[in-house]
Amino acid sequence: MAGGAGTVVTGNSADDCGEYNIQRMVVLALETVTPAGSLALSREGHVAATMQETGVPHAARLPLALVDWLATQGQRLEDVTHLAVVCGPGSFTGVRIGMACAQGLAVTRSWPVAAVSTLDALAEGWRATRSNGEPRTVLACLDGMRGEVFTATFRWDGATMTPLGDPLVGAPASVTVAGFADPVVVVGSGAVRYAEVWTTAGVEVIDACEPLAAGAARLAASGVCPFVAPHALRPVYIRRPDVELARDRRIAQA
Question: Which end of the chain, N or C, is less packed with Cβ atoms under 10 Å?
Answer without folding.
Answer: C
